[in-house]
């Protein structure tokens, strides 16, 4: 299903997850948020349901659904999930430890299990299974989903650290022992994988994705026009059995930064809040590319494609998606062109642009650790890719257009604390904007070029900048414009005088910088107004 379909629906089906496991809930919510869907927690003060292990998983989940429905009289869609394990060395007709995985794992140590495996001819083959039962009011039986991942138990105890951002990726559960099949390179335990890499192997994540696929289909049906339905009775029921959420207010935060700077981590962190909806610009681009049957992945071809449909096209599509959830704080990651950001800034004047910064070598080391894609295997290749990304425009002038700059060069804990702090200030409208008291040299040069309206020498540009009261020296004029070739075209005139001409992209950047600077000055003045009359 197209990434954007979730936001085309006027009627949103509420989906509850009945669980007492906070990490499971967090994982399910994050996967749903990434698809524009919402999962809510259905909690209880007692154990979720009676876990009778005398029957199979499907029977247990059927009974559990009936028990929960009867106990709470729930008239909404909800689901439950059960994880089971099969250790081939100890399993015969039935799986061991099977559905008792949680109790078994808490009662044994790695060394004990390792000894038992060595005595059983060291057969370390393992399958981890996830089963989900979805209760849909009106259906007699729950809708079942199943996923499993095969692999082996590692030869040694886990020695890696838990991931603060994704607590289910940890050495403290079976994920710390389990090495999934099908990995390239040096095999990793599921718990030590980077989040993006783990999605292919995570038994529960794969099952939740199946559930979300089906739920998206249910929402499409729920949003069909009335003529698509035939009533069996003359008068339809007054109250629907499916609770419908209507969209609620809107703020917009744009996250930009280099590869592996921490954009996705920022978005995932605040996506845990029910009031936040995250959009990935790359997913929007893929949907647009599919519509136009564009397949190439090369940066040159991608930029040509964006030019052919409009460099603001991703921003225009994002604006439509943001408008579909008017009562939520929307976060957009990975925008690359000035035109996209300008379009969104114009559509939503209170837009905040946040730049995530990190040293290039640190970002490269993160890239190697994540191993999410082929290529960029050396620091020099990584540098070349950085320059290709800057050619899209936004990262070339990131400091000129950012309202806030966040450094991500320390531990994950410190970065997440910084994210929480920044978002808390945004929610309370206590933002410390980056300085914008005077225009940058690039802005002054582009302003001068725009006023001249034609090709001009560095001397002519420098002379014109004096009108602003912040003149730029001739040498600095050349340096500023030469560093931003997307926004000012270099021209060699007869006689060898170096000259420049502003491009259409330069005019878009100039507009964006002036809007931002004017807004920041207004905000700062407004913050000072209450004290103006005090003696």
From TrEMBL:
Entry keyword RNA-binding: no
Name used for this protein in its record: Uncharacterized protein
Any GO BP annotation: nucleotide metabolic process
Organism of origin: Rhodoplanes roseus
Keywords, alphabetical: Hydrolase, Nucleotide metabolism
Pfam families: Ham1p_like
Taxonomy, superkingdom: Bacteria
Molecular function per GO: nucleoside triphosphate diphosphatase activity
């Amino acid at each position: 299903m197209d990434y954007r379909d979730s936001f085309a629906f006027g009627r949103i089906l509420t989906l509850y997850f009945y669980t007492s496991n906070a990490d499971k809930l967090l994982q399910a919510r994050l996967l749903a948020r990434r698809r524009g869907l919402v999962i809510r927690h259905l909690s209880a003060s007692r154990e979720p349901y009676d876990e009778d292990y005398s029957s199979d998983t499907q029977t247990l989940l059927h009974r559990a659904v009936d028990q929960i429905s009867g106990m709470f009289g729930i008239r909404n869609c909800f689901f439950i999930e059960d994880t089971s394990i099969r250790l081939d060395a100890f399993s015969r007709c039935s799986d061991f430890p099977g559905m008792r995985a949680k109790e078994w794992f808490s009662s044994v140590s790695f060394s004990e299990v390792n000894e038992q495996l060595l005595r059983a001819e060291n057969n370390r083959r393992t399958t981890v299974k996830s089963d989900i039962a979805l209760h849909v009011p009106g259906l007699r039986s729950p809708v079942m989903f199943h996923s499993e991942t095969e692999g082996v138990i590692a030869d040694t105890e886990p020695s890696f650290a838990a991931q603060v951002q994704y607590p289910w990726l940890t050495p403290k559960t079976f994920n710390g022992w389990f090495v999934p099949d099908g990995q390239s390179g040096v095999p990793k335990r599921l718990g030590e994988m980077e989040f993006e890499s783990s999605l292919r192997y995570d038994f529960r994540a794969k099952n939740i994705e199946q559930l979300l696929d089906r739920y998206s289909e249910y929402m499409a049906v729920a949003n069909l026009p009335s003529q698509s339905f035939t009533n069996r009775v003359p008068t339809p029921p007054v109250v629907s059995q499916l609770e419908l959420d209507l969209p609620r207010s809107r703020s917009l935060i744009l996250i930009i930064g280099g590869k592996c700077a921490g954009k996705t981590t920022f978005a995932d962190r605040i996506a845990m809040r029910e009031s936040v909806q995250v959009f990935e610009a790359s997913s929007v681009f893929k949907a647009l590319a599919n519509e136009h049957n564009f397949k190439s992945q090369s940066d040159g071809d991608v930029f040509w494609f964006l030019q052919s449909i409009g460099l603001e096209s991703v921003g225009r599509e994002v604006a439509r998606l943001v408008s579909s959830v008017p009562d939520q704080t929307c976060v957009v990651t990975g925008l690359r062109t000035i035109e996209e950001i300008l379009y969104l800034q114009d559509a939503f004047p209170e837009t905040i642009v946040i730049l995530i910064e990190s040293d290039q070598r640190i970002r490269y080391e993160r890239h190697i650790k994540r191993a999410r894609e082929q290529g960029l295997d050396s620091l020099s290749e990584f540098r070349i890719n950085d320059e290709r990304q800057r050619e899209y425009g936004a990262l070339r002038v990131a400091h000129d257009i950012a309202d806030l700059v966040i450094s991500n060069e320390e531990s994950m804990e410190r970065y997440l604390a910084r994210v929480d702090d920044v978002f808390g200030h945004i929610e309370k409208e206590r933002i410390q904007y980056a300085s914008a008291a005077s225009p940058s040299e690039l802005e002054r040069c582009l302003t001068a070029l725009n006023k001249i309206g034609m090709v001009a020498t560095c001397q002519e540009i420098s002379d014109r900048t004096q009108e602003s009261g912040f003149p730029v020296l001739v040498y600095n004029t050349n340096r500023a414009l030469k560093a931003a070739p997307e926004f000012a075209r270099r021209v060699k005139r007869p006689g060898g005088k170096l000259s420049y001409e502003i491009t259409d992209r330069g005019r878009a950047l100039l507009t964006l910088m002036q809007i931002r600077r004017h807004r920041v000055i207004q905000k700062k003045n407004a913050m000072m107004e209450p004290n103006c009359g005090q003696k």
